[in-house]
Amino acid sequence: MSWKLSRRFFLLQMLFWAVNGCQPKAQFDGELTIGTISYGGGEDIITQYTKFNRYLAEKTKSHIRLEPAFNENKAIERLEARAWSLVFAPPGLAAIAIARYQYVPLFPLVGVSNLRSIFVVRKDSPISELKQLQGQTVALGQQGSATGYYFPLFNLYGLTVAEIISAPTPKTVMEWVAVGKATAGAVSIAEYNLYSSQLSQTQFRVLYTDPHYVPAGVVLIGPNIERNRQEYIRKVMSEFPSGLAQQVGYIPNGNIPDYQYMISVVERVKLIVPQLQNKPVRLFVS
Question: Which of 233, 188, 203 minimizes the C-alpha distance to 57?
Answer without folding.
Answer: 233
